[in-house]
Specification:
Strand content of chain A: 25-35%
Distance between the termini of chain B: 58 Å
Number of strands of chain A: 35
Radius of gyration of chain A: 27 Å
Structural class of chain A: alpha+beta
Number of domains of chain A: 6
Largest sheet of chain B: 7 strands, antiparallel
Number of strands of chain B: 21
Shape of chain B: globular
Number of helices of chain A: 17
Largest interface: A-B, 82 and 107 residues
Number of helices of chain B: 22
Shape of chain A: globular
Strand content of chain B: 15-25%
Distance between the termini of chain A: 38 Å
Radius of gyration of chain B: 26 Å
Structural class of chain B: alpha+beta
Oligomer: heterodimer
Chain lengths: 709, 731
C-alpha cells in the first residue's frame, strides 16, 4: 500500500474513530476511547492504532498526509457540562428575561413523544448567562429596519462598565431585528470595545448580526451565546490537535467539518457552525458512494447504541434544517437535515407488568453499564442482549474479542423481565423485540422517503454504524429500495464521509422580497435584479473568505440559493437557483416555477397557493473548493464462492426458528463473492446478519449489496 | 346523482350496532377478547406505533405549510386516524383536546345520513367548526377525509387547527364579543368542501370573502388536507401489507385495548372513591362598548366538580350544580367538554402515545342539561368556551392529583393550570392593509406547582402541553405593534412550599397604524379560577390591562429619558403612569374599547399557576434566587413566605436563615392567634348565608345553581343547616 494522504477523525462521545486513506482509496481504521479533557490524546492514540494497522509510524503518517480532518464533540461537551466562559449579555431593554423565559418549547423539545405530553417532566435548560449579567439598553428597530426608539448610548456605557467590573470573558449583544438593521448592535459593540480598552480588559465582543444574521431573536441569541460560551475552549482543543499533528511532521492546517457539510480551517470565525458535525459525515460519505455507483438518490442510515439517524440525498440534493436544537437550545444554524428516532442496540426493553405494553427505550444502557451481556453491571435487558441470546452476535468476537458476551446472564434476566410477562418463549420474545426495533426503523425510513415525493425504487439505502448491518435486513425489508449497501468499514463510515468533503462557505442574509401573484414583466425583472445584486455581494464575501484561507480564485465555484415561501407562510423551502443571475422576467419565472416544484415535492400538490404570491426570505450562496479525496479501489470480480472468508457455523435464531448459519470474516470477502443466508458476516466492529433466502453480493468496489429474497 | 357508500354494511346501522355492542358487552364494538393481540403481541404493538408515526409526521408536514404562527410557531394542531364509525385509533401530539371532538363530527355526519346526501366518496373532504356538531369553538376548524380501500370505507383521517381569524364580530378567533352564535364568525357546518383531493374553489372564495385574514384559514385548510391525504395513503399502504381483514379487526382491538389500558392505569394510579373540587370564574363586562343588553354585564360562575373513580378504574366527572348557559361566548358544548377530559388524561395518564378513543370510553361525563357545559339552546355562542372549560379541568387536574397523592405517586401531583388570556386584534396593519389575528403567545403561561418542585415558568398551558410563546420577530411581522417589554411577572405564581410557575407580560407601542382594534378574552376577575393544593395559594387573578393613549414615548426617547417597559410591582402607581404622559387607562377583564393608533402603549399579561404546600415550608435559598431573577418581590418573600433576605457584596439577595426562622416562628404564632374553630366560623358565616348577605353576582350565582340542580340545592342547605325550603332570591 502507498502512504496515506488523508486522516479523518470522528471523535464521538465514547469512541474516536480514525480512517486513513491513500491515493488509491485503500484505507485502514483505528479506534480508541475519546478523551474529553484533552482531545489531542485520544486523537493521537486513535491515529496510532490506525498507523499500526497500516504498518507505519506516526511520523511517517503525519509527514506524508495532505489533509488532517478532525470532527469532535469537545464544544458540545463544554455546552452540555456548562463549563464554558463567563458571559455578559446586552439586549433590548424590556427583553432581559428572555434568557429565563426561553422559548417555551425549549422546556420539552427533544423529548420523547411520551414526555412531550407528560407535562410534569418539562423544564427549561439552564441559561448560559445569568440574569444578573444581562443588561437591557433602551432601543428598538422594527421589522422594516426603521428605528422606532433610538439607542440610549449612556445606558450602554453603564452596562459595559458593570460587565467589565464583573470580570466577564465575553460580552454578547443581541437586539431585536438586528439582522434587518444592525445599526444599534454595531454602536453597542463600539461602545463596549471603547470601555474594554479604557479598562485595559481582555474581553471579546460578539454581536448577533455578525454571528447569525437570520430572523428569530431567540435562536439568534442562542447562536451568539453558544459561540461565545463554548467555542473558545473548542478552539484550544483544535489548536492542540493541530500542534500534535505538526509535532509529528504535518505541514498544513487541520480542517474541521461544518454542520452544513463542508470543510473549513479551525480558524473559522463562527465555530459553533461545526458543533453538530459528527453525523454529517455519513451524508457526505453517501454522496461520495452515490457517485461511484451512479445513483444520486440515497438514504444513509446510521444505527448505533441509542439512535437511528437518517440522511437523505434526493436527486443530488440534500435538505438543510434551519432551526436545529443543540442541548435543547433552538438555533438557526443551517445543518444538513437528519431525521433521528430513538432506536439502537443499547435501548432498554420494558414490559409493563400491569398493561403488558412493551416499550423500547427511550433510555439506552449506553456503554456504561451497557447491556447485561457486557457484564459491566447492566441489569436492564437491551436489544444487544436479544442479539446475543439469538446467536446473532458472536460472544467471543465483540470488538474483536475485547469484550466477551455473557449470554446466559442476559438470557436469564430477559426471561424474567420480558418473556415471562408476555407469556412467550425467550427466543420468540427476543426476536419480537428486535422486530419491533427494526419495524420502527423501517417505518421511519418509509416516512423519510415519502417526504421526498419520489418512489422508493429510486433510492439506494446505505447502512452503517456499529449496529446498522446487524439490523439491516429488518430495517430495509419490503420498502423496495433500488439497492441496499453496507461496508467493511461500516463502523467508521462517518469518519470516512468526513474525508470526502470539500472546502465550503455558506453565506446568507434575510430578505423581505414579496412578489405578488400577478406581478407583470417589469416588476418581475426588477425583483430579479434585486436578487442578483444580493447574490453578487454574497459571492464577493464568500470568495474573499476562501481566498484568505489559501484557496486560488479559479478553484472556487459558487452556487446561489433562495429560501422561499408563499407570502404569509412561516416556513421556507430551500431552492437551489436554476441560474446564477436573473436578468429578465422569464428568468424570474423560472425561479418561481422551481420553487413550486420543490414545494409540491416536500408538501403536497393540494397545498400549493400561488394566489397568495411568493416571498423570498433569505438569499444565500454556497462557495466550494475541491480537496483531495479517497477513491475506493475497483477490482475485477472474482469467483462467487466465498469459501476463502468462511470461518465456521453457529446456531442463530431467525424467523421463528434456529438455523445453522455460516460464519464469514467480513474483511476477507472479495469482489465477486456471494453469501447466501442464513449467514453471519463478522467484523471486529460490526456484524451483518443475512436472513434465510437473502443474499449478499460483493461488488468490484468491495461494497456489500444486500438482496432480499 | 347522490353517491352511495360502497361499504357493504350501511354506516349508520354499523354505528348503531357498534354502540349496541358496547352497551351489551361493556367492551368496545363487542370485543371481549383481544385475539390479535394475544396471537402476536409484538406485531400488534408494532402496528400501533406505526399508526402513531403516520400521525406525527403528517402533522409535521402540515406545520410546514401553515401561514399561521399559531400552527407553525406554537403547534396549535392535531391529527388522528379513525375507524369507519369515527372512533380514534391513533393520534399525533399537539392539541389533544380535539381527538374526540373530530370523532363527534364524523359520527354526526353518519347519523345525519351523509352517506346518502351529500355522499361519502373517495377523495371527498369534509370540514366543520360548529361546536354542536363537534368542535370546541369557531376557530377550531377540522377537516376529515374518508379512507377507502378497494371500494370499502376503512376509516377516516382527520386534522384540526386553531385559526387565528374566524371573521366574527371582533377580530381574531376567540370572538369575545359574541353573545349568540350569529356573531361568532364563519361557520362551516359538517360541509363537503372538497372533492377528488382538491378544496372546492367556491369554498375557498367563501373563506376569502368572509375573513379578515383569509390566508391563515385557507393555507391551514390546505395543510390539513395534505396531512389527511398523507395519512390516508399511509393507511392504504399498511393495509396492502397486513390485509383488509386484519386491519378492520386490529384497528378495533387497538381501541378496546386503549379502554382497558385506561382502566388499568386509573386503578394503578389512584384510589377509588368520590373526589370533590370547586372553582369560580368572574367575568366583568359592565360599561364596555359593544355588549348587547341580552344578559347581565357581569357574570360569576360556580364550577363544582365531582370525580368518581370506580373500583374497575372508570372515571366519572359530574358537573351538577354549575351555572346555566348565558348570553356570552363562554358556553361550551359536550364536544368541548370531551376535549377537556381528553387533554387532561393524555397529560397525566395516557402520555405513552398509544392513546386513542378507548381512553375516552373508560370515562364518563355527566353534563347537566341547560348548564354552560351542555346548553339546551343551540344558538348560544361558544367562541371563548376555554374561559370556563379550563378552570373546570384545572379542578380535574387537582382531583386526579389527590388520587395520585393518596396512592403515593407524589411526583405525578400537578396543580395544573387554567386560563391564559388571549389577545386578538384587527384593523389596519403596518402594511396599510386590513388584517385580523389572534396573538398566540398566550400558549406559554405558568404551570401549577408540583408536589416536589415549583411549577414551570412561562412554558405551559393546559390545552397544549407542547407550549410555546414564539419569537417576537415572527409576531411583529403580523401586527402593527412593537414590543418594548416581554418580561416575567413577579409574584404571578401562587405561593406555596412549591410556588406556581410565573407568567409573563407584554408591553407594546402601537406602530404605523391609525386604526388598531385590540380585544382580549378569557380572564377571570375578582375570584380565583386557578386553585392551589395542600395549603398552596391559588394563582393570582388576571392582571388588569393598562394602556396609555397618545403617549409621549417619542418625545421621551428623543430626550433619552427613561421609558417604562412593564407596569412594575407598585400596586398604587404603575411605572407607565410614572414615566409616560397621556391618557392612562386601567381596565379589568376583557379589553374592548375604541381603536388605538401609533404611539399608544398597551400591556397584556398571562396567568401563573397555583401553589402547593405551606408557604412557611418554602426553601429560603431558592426564594433568594427567585427574587434575584424577578419571579418574586422581596416584599412578597417576607410578607407571604416569612423569608428574610439580605444582600451580598454585589447587592444580590441572599437568604438570612436565622432571621427567617424568627420571622416564621412569629407568623406561626399569628396564625394560631387568628385561628378560630371551624364550627364557630361556619356558625358566623351561616348567618350571612341565611340573610343572603352576598354581592349581587354571588347571590345570583347560587340562586341559579340551586334552581337548576336539586342536588346542589340540597347539599347547600345541608351544609349550612338551612331550612329545607330555603331559596335565594335571584335579584
Amino acid at each position: 500500500m502507498n502512504q496515506p494522504i488523508v486522516i479523518g477523525i470522528d471523535a464521538g462521545g465514547t469512541m474516536t474513530d480514525t480512517i486513513l486513506v491513500d491515493h488509491d482509496g485503500n484505507f485502514k481504521i483505528g479506534k480508541s476511547a475519546t478523551t474529553p479533557l484533552d482531545e489531542a490524546e485520544g486523537f493521537l492514540t486513535s491515529a496510532e492504532d490506525a498507523a499500526d494497522a497500516w504498518g507505519i509510524s506516526l511520523e511517517t503518517l503525519f509527514s506524508g498526509v495532505n489533509v488532517v480532518l478532525y470532527s469532535g464533540t469537545g464544544m458540545l461537551n463544554t455546552l452540555l457540562s456548562r463549563t464554558g466562559r463567563k458571559l455578559g449579555l446586552i439586549t433590548s431593554k424590556g427583553m432581559e428575561d428572555m434568557i429565563l423565559m426561553g422559548r417555551g418549547l425549549q422546556a420539552w423539545a427533544d423529548y420523547s413523544y411520551a414526555d412531550r405530553l407528560h407535562a410534569i417532566t418539562h423544564h427549561h435548560p439552564d441559561p448560559l448567562v445569568p440574569r444578573r449579567r444581562t443588561h437591557g439598553v433602551t432601543e428598538r428597530v422594527d421589522h422594516f429596519g426603521d428605528v422606532i426608539i433610538p439607542l440610549y448610548e449612556h445606558e450602554v456605557g453603564a452596562a459595559a462598565r458593570k460587565l467589565i467590573a464583573d470580570k466577564v470573558d465575553a460580552i454578547c449583544i443581541m437586539t431585536i431585528f438586528s439582522h434587518v438593521n444592525p445599526v444599534h448592535e454595531q454602536r453597542i459593540a463600539e461602545i463596549c470595545r471603547e470601555e474594554i480598552e479604557k479598562a485595559g480588559a481582555d474581553i471579546t465582543v460578539y454581536t448577533s448580526h455578525e454571528v447569525r444574521p437570520v430572523i428569530r431573536e431567540q435562536s439568534r441569541l442562542n447562536s451568539v451565546l453558544i459561540e461565545a460560551y463554548a467555542t473558545s475552549r473548542g478552539r484550544k482543543q483544535l489548536k492542540g490537535i493541530e500542534d500534535v499533528s505538526r509535532k509529528y511532521g504535518f505541514k498544513y492546517g487541520v480542517q474541521t467539518l461544518l454542520s452544513f457539510g463542508g470543510l473549513t480551517s479551525i480558524n473559522h470565525p463562527r465555530l459553533h457552525e461545526t458543533m453538530i458535525s459528527g453525523p454529517i459525515g455519513g451524508i457526505l460519505g453517501a454522496a461520495y458512494v452515490g457517485k461511484l455507483i451512479g445513483n444520486d438518490s440515497l438514504i444513509c442510515s446510521d444505527m448505533g447504541g441509542t439512535s437511528f439517524d437518517m440522511g437523505v440525498i434526493t436527486r443530488g440534493q440534500t435538505r438543510i434544517e434551519n432551526e436545529p436544537l443543540m442541548d435543547r437550545f433552538k438555533l438557526n444554524v443551517p445543518t444538513l437535515h437528519l431525521d433521528t428516532i430513538g432506536a439502537g442496540a443499547g435501548m432498554i426493553l420494558k414490559v409493563d407488568p400491569l398493561t403488558k405494553k412493551v416499550s423500547l427505550g427511550p433510555e439506552s444502557a449506553g456503554s456504561d453499564p451497557g447491556p447485561i451481556c457486557f457484564a459491566k453491571g447492566g441489569t436492564e435487558p437491551t436489544i444487544a442482549d436479544c442479539d446475543a441470546i439469538l446467536g446473532r452476535l458472536n460472544p467471543h468476537y465483540f470488538l474483536g474479542g475485547k469484550v466477551v458476551l455473557q449470554v446466559e446472564k442476559a438470557r436469564k434476566a430477559f426471561k424474567e423481565k420480558c418473556a415471562d410477562l408476555l407469556g412467550v418463549s425467550v427466543e420468540e420474545a427476543a426476536e419480537g423485540m428486535i422486530d419491533m426495533l427494526e419495524a420502527d426503523a423501517n417505518n421511519a425510513l418509509r416516512r423519510v422517503i415519502s417526504g421526498q415525493g419520489i418512489h422508493p425504487s429510486e433510492f439506494t439505502l446505505l447502512s452503517y454504524g456499529g449496529s446498522g448491518p446487524l439490523h439491516l435486513a429488518g430495517c430495509s425489508r419490503g420498502i423496495g429500495f433500488k439497492d441496499i449497501i453496507t461496508f467493511q468499514f461500516a463502523a467508521a463510515f462517518s469518519a470516512f464521509g468526513c474525508t470526502t468533503a470539500d472546502y465550503m462557505r455558506r453565506h446568507s442574509v434575510s430578505t423581505q422580497i414579496d412578489i405578488p401573484a400577478k406581478a407583470d414583466d417589469a416588476a418581475l425583472e426588477a425583483f430579479g435584479a434585486r436578487v442578483t445584486a444580493v447574490w453578487d455581494d454574497l459571492t464577493r464575501a464568500a470568495v474573499d473568505e476562501m481566498i484568505a484561507d489559501g484557496h486560488a480564485r479559479e478553484k472556487i465555484t459558487t452556487t446561489p440559493f433562495l429560501m422561499m415561501r408563499y407570502t404569509g407562510q412561516l416556513e421556507d423551502v430551500e431552492v437551489m437557483a436554476p441560474l446564477s443571475a436573473i436578468s429578465n422576467a422569464d428568468d424570474m419565472r423560472k425561479v418561481l416555477t422551481e420553487f413550486e416544484a420543490v414545494y409540491a415535492k416536500v408538501n403536497h400538490r393540494v397545498s400549493r397557493y400561488g394566489e397568495a404570491g411568493f416571498s423570498i426570505t433569505e438569499l444565500g450562496l454556497i462557495a466550494t473548493a475541491d480537496k483531495v479525496k479517497p477513491t475506493l479501489a475497483r477490482r475485477p470480480l472474482g469467483k462467487s464462492d466465498p469459501a476463502s472468508a468462511h470461518k465456521g457455523v453457529r446456531e442463530a435464531y431467525i424467523g421463528g426458528r434456529w438455523h445453522k448459519a455460516n460464519l464469514y470474516e467480513m474483511d476477507l470477502l472479495q469482489p465477486g463473492h456471494e453469501v447466501a443466508g442464513p449467514a453471519i458476516i463478522e467484523h471486529p466492529a460490526t456484524t451483518l446478519v443475512v436472513h434465510p433466502e437473502d443474499r449478499v453480493f460483493v461488488d468490484e468496489w468491495t461494497l456489500l449489496h444486500y438482496n432480499h429474497a | 346523482m347522490l353517491n352511495r357508500s360502497a361499504s357493504p354494511a350501511r354506516l349508520r346501522e354499523r354505528l348503531l350496532e357498534s354502540e349496541q355492542l358496547m352497551e351489551t358487552t361493556g367492551c368496545y364494538d363487542g370485543i371481549t377478547e383481544l385475539t390479535l393481540r394475544s396471537q402476536d403481541p409484538l406485531k400488534f404493538e408494532t402496528l400501533h406505533t406505526k399508526l402513531r408515526a403516520f400521525c406525527v409526521s403528517a402533522r409535521e408536514m402540515a406545520r410546514r405549510i401553515s401561514a399561521s404562527p399559531g400552527v407553525r410557531e406554537v403547534g396549535e394542531m392535531v391529527v388522528a386516524i379513525y375507524t369507519p364509525e369515527g372512533d380514534a385509533i391513533a393520534l399525533s401530539n399537539g392539541i389533544m383536546v380535539h381527538v374526540h371532538t373530530m370523532s363527534r363530527f364524523i359520527k354526526w355526519m353518519i347519523r345525519n345520513g351523509y352517506e346518502d346526501n351529500p355522499g361519502i366518496r373517495e377523495g371527498d373532504i369534509f370540514a366543520n367548526n360548529d361546536a354542536f356538531i363537534g368542535t370546541v369553538q369557531v376557530p377550531d376548524v377540522m377537516d376529515v377525509v374518508p379512507i377507502f380501500y378497494e371500494g370499502t370505507l376503512v376509516g377516516w383521517a382527520g386534522a384540526v387547527c386553531h385559526e387565528l381569524e374566524a371573521g366574527g364580530i371582533t377580530p381574531g378567533g376567540d370572538v369575545c364579543l359574541a353573545q349568540e352564535r350569529f356573531t361568532e364568525g364563519l361557520f362551516v357546518c359538517a360541509e363537503k368542501v372538497g372533492e377528488n383531493d382538491e378544496l372546492r374553489r367556491d369554498y375557498v372564495i367563501r373563506c376569502e370573502r368572509n375573513l379578515r385574514m383569509p390566508i391563515y384559514w385557507v393555507l391551514d385548510e390546505k395543510a390539513k388536507v395534505a396531512s389527511c391525504i398523507d395519512m390516508r395513503e399511509s393507511v392504504k399502504a399498511l393495509i396492502d401489507e397486513i390485509g383488509l381483514d386484519y386491519w378492520m379487526k386490529v384497528s378495533k382491538e387497538f381501541i378496546e385495548e386503549g379502554r382497558r389500558g385506561q382502566l388499568a392505569r386509573t386503578r394503578h394510579l389512584t384510589v377509588p372513591g368520590k373526589y370533590r373540587g370547586h372553582t369560580f370564574y368572574g367575568h366583568v363586562t359592565e360599561g364596555k362598548p359593544g355588549f348587547q343588553p341580552l344578559g347581565d354585564p357581569n357574570w360569576l360562575y360556580n364550577i363544582p366538580v365531582e370525580m368518581e373513580v370506580s373500583t374497575d378504574g372508570k372515571i366519572t366527572l359530574d358537573f351538577d350544580g354549575t351555572q346555566p348557559w348565558g348570553y356570552h361566548s363562554m358556553n361550551c358544548t359536550p364536544a368541548g367538554m370531551d376535549g377537556g377530559m381528553f387533554v387532561t388524561l393524555t397529560q397525566h395518564m395516557n402520555f405513552e402515545g398509544l392513546v386513542n378513543d378507548g381512553a375516552w370510553m373508560a370515562t364518563e361525563l355527566k353534563l347537566p342539561h341547560g348548564t354552560w357545559t351542555n346548553p339546551d339552546n343551540e344558538m348560544v355562542a361558544t367562541a371563548t368556551s376555554w374561559a370556563l372549560l379550563l378552570p373546570a379541568y384545572g379542578v380535574f387536574q387537582r382531583l386526579l392529583s389527590r388520587g395520585f397523592l393518596a396512592r403515593g405517586y407524589v411526583e405525578e401531583v400537578f396543580v395544573g393550570q387554567v386560563n391564559s388570556p388571549m389577545i386578538e386584534m384587527g384593523g389596519k396593519s403596518q402594511y396599510g392593509t386590513q388584517f385580523g389575528m389572534a396573538h398566540f403567545e398566550c400558549a406559554a403561561a405558568g404551570s401549577g406547582a408540583l408536589a416536589i418542585k415549583d411549577g414551570l415558568d412561562t412554558a405551559y398551558v393546559g390545552w397544549n402541553p407542547e407550549s410555546d410563546m414564539g419569537n417576537i420577530e415572527i409576531w411583529e411581522q403580523t401586527m402593527p405593534m412593537v414590543y418594548i417589554g416581554r418580561s416575567i411577572v413577579p409574584n404571578s405564581g401562587g405561593a406555596g412550599k412549591y410556588r406556581g410557575g410565573c407568567s409573563f407580560i407584554s408591553t407594546w407601542v402601537v406602530n404605523k397604524t391609525d386604526h388598531l382594534r385590540l380585544v382580549t378574552s378569557e380572564h377571570s376577575s375578582r375570584v380565583f379560577d386557578n386553585g392551589g393544593m395542600c395549603g398552596g395559594y391559588p394563582a393570582p387573578t388576571c392582571q388588569k390591562h393598562r394602556a396609555v393613549r397618545g403617549s409621549n414615548i417619542n418625545e421621551l426617547a428623543e430626550k433619552r429619558e427613561p421609558l417604562a417597559h412593564a407596569p412594575g410591582t407598585d400596586p398604587h402607581v404603575s411605572d407607565l403612569e410614572r414615566r409616560f404622559e397621556g391618557e392612562h387607562v386601567t381596565l379589568e377583564g376583557p379589553y374592548i374599547t375604541a381603536p388605538h393608533k401609533a404611539g399608544d402603549i398597551f400591556t397584556h399579561s398571562y396567568n401563573g399557576g397555583g401553589g402547593y404546600g405551606d408557604v412557611l415550608e418554602r426553601d429560603p435559598v431558592k426564594t433568594a434566587w427567585d427574587v434575584e431573577n424577578g419571579f418574586l418581590t422581596q416584599e412578597a418573600a417576607e410578607s407571604v413566605f416569612g423569608i428574610i433576605l439580605s444582600e451580598d457584596d454585589d447587592g444580590m439577595p441572599v437568604a438570612d436563615l436565622e432571621a427567617t426562622r424568627t420571622r416564621r416562628a412569629e407568623m406561626r404564632k399569628t396564625r394560631l392567634r387568628k385561628a378560630i374553630p371551624v364550627e364557630e366560623w361556619i356558625a358566623s358565616e351561616r348567618k350571612r348565608v341565611e340573610a343572603a348577605d352576598f354581592a349581587p353576582e354571588v347571590r345570583k350565582m347560587y340562586a341559579s345553581a340551586m334552581k337548576l340542580s336539586p342536588r346542589f340545592a340540597s347539599d347547600f342547605r345541608d351544609f349550612w343547616k338551612l331550612d329545607p325550603k330555603f331559596t335565594l332570591p335571584a335579584e
